[in-house]
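Justification of resources, computational component.

The compute hours requested in this renewal are based largely on the per-chain cost of generating structure records like the one below. Each record pairs the submitted sequence with a full structure-token output. That output is archived, and it is also reused by downstream analysis tasks.
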Amino acid sequence: MSLSGMAIAFKASTSGSTAQLLWGHSTKDQCQYGFTHLNEARSRKGSAALHVRAASGKLDLDFSDPSWRQKYQEDWDRRFNLPHITDIFDLEPRLTTFSLKKNRIPLGDVDGSSPDMWNGYVNKDDRALLKVIKYASPTSAGAKCIDPDCSWMEHWVHRAGPRKEIYYEPEEVKAAIVTCGGLCPGLNDVIRQIVFTLEIYGVKNIVGIQFGYRGFFEKGLKEMPLSRDLVENINLSGGSFLGVSRGGAKTSEIVDSIQARRIDMLFVIGGNGSHAGANAIHEECRKRKLKVSVVAVPKTIDNDILFMDKTFGFDTAVEEAQRAINSAYIEARSAYHGIGLVKLMGRSTGFIAMHASLSSGQIDVCLIPEISFTLDGERGVLAHVEHLLKTKGFCVICVAEGAGQDLLQKSNATDASGNVILSDFGVHMQQKIKKHFKDIDVPADVKYIDPTYMVRACRANASDAILCTVLGQNAVHGAFAGFSGITSGICNTHYAFLPITEVITAPKHVNPNSRMWHRCLTSTGQPDFH
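The structure output for this chain reads:
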């Protein structure tokens, strides 16, 4: 199931002319980048109406209208309102069965409250703030502006956690867990915590769907009963206890299977494509008026899901990448005119390559998909590598797998998830380096390292294990609270529930004007390759 980004059109209207710019980013990017590159708008703001419009028609603001702030806020609140099963069914909630006070000794009636009262619940009106920096100007590094004045707008999202009231009877619930897409460190940690939390609520019927969405329709793939005893130690190893696969059947066939199996809660652990699939399942269940909560958990080592500080598996992948980079550094440093070349994962985003380069401190050149570059010419990458060999005697290069695709022959082939199969830029870079130094008759010892599958098949590190634990727990809390078509993530250091429809509009990208990318450039010392 493929995803496409939402194109944002910014329209600047003046009395004498109309300028129209197409901004190839998502709704999130509109809020983040807005007028970063439209400085000329500031000079016109006093004499002209300035409009911002989403290509989808969701947003149409005239900044000369005094009420534009209110309209923007109302649009935001509407978009980030969480789908709930009471949108379809007339249901009354019941008091939750989730409590961590069950085994504590009651302290008696305090201030008239019940001895069983526990202040560990999240109020349904609690919100978390996505944006905390107030930019003074669109020219500020990493500026995230909506209008030319960088007006402050509050972007609130629903706080995640257990509610006092729930919409399911735990003893009647059948819950299913499925892991989709590729492997990622922490999958087993999430499975484990979902099972643990479901049992605390009182759910007895928990099953695992084997090998992704394929498990819903492939003959011979049976449900796997899950319990605390069975999943107790699965976090001690990498991979997925349930297995993974890409692609799947039609949404209607999957929902047919959900209906036949009498599943009440479905937890989908996956990336952008799997989230799109989860949302399609959610919509089909609503269409059929099925009381099924579909909750996703964001999984991708690429860290490319909108609104979230990071996704689980990312920290572990960056940490594992250090081993490859350190090996490349030792090889390059030990050889005469040594060049270490490391290719890391990152189809459309360079977060792993950028963070691995920053954390290692050993990278001289970092190339990512978001930043265009040239290899040849006096301002190209190869000329800089030549300069490094002359000045320091060796060089270490880190490239993301999706970098430099415009320099290679494009392929129209796609994988089972609908992703375009990329040309191998790492191998291309290796060949270009060897050819360049051979042509100028300069010896160069190139060592190419591709740890692609090593960084994702390992066990989650401590940071990711904690993130997985919280995400797994919050997924269950969201389902029992009656939400469906949502995902759970860490946003601005706080855990939040988000509608899937908003997080799948486009992948998150490295902002070339961000402070983090500037820090990476400061660390590598690389110039612009144009």
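The radius of gyration is 25 Å. The CA atoms of residues 216 and 257 lie 6 Å apart.
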